Amino acid sequence: QKEVEQDPGPLSVPEGAIVSLNCTYSNSAFQYFMWYRQYSRKGPELLMYTYSSGNKEDGRFTAQVDKSSKYISLFIRDSQPSDSATYLCAKSNTGNQFYFGTGTSLTVIP
Amino acid sequence: NAGVTQTPKFQVLKTGQSMTLQCAQDMNHEYMSWYRQDPGMGLRLIHYSVGAGITDQGEVPNGYNVSRSTTEDFPLRLLSAAPSQTSVYFCASSYIIIGGKGTEAFFGQGTRLTVV
After folding, report:
1. Is B40 exposed, middle or buried (0-12, 13-18, 19+ CB in 10 A)?
2. Closest residue to A94, CB basis, from B42, B50, B101
3. How far apart are CA B54 and CA B67, in angstroms?
4. B88-112 per-position pLDDT tens digit
């Protein structure tokens, strides 16, 4: 079983739609979760991080963690063409172990 | 802030050639690492370092060497390039957390390597 599982998509939505990106993870010892955005031919850029169950909001983005079901989600409201990218979920622990999902490719159509 | 800087951005090598991918960070992070990213396989850890003079192997270390003489720099050496090493390489850095729950990794912009 992979440490982090992520649906690769691709996902295509119209501009203004609400986007839901999801990952599952194994190993409850990991308590720190991140979402990265990666534009084509660029490095992953940290979008959000959270270490608590529940929701964390940052503008149009909401990160959600459900530790009981080991589920990580990212919601994008009012999606824009500039949100078109690959989104990677990730987890880490205090031992600097990092595990990344394979990424979901998102296209927002104007 | 420059963050994590990688050079070169692109490189083409012939099979058997050697080269060094450079990585530098200006955030005073103790932890640095190298990943390769291949389609459908995500990010795979090659080598990592928890401080100057300390390195260790990751998931796919064969064919690569690293050293860490300063906090800022963490070069990756390809000893004898093979077509299987064609990939995009990312350097990342992070703080080492004592206590707490974890930390974030910060990535460079990548080096796109083709071995022919």
Report:
1. exposed
2. B101
3. 8
4. 999 999 988 777 778 899 999 999 9
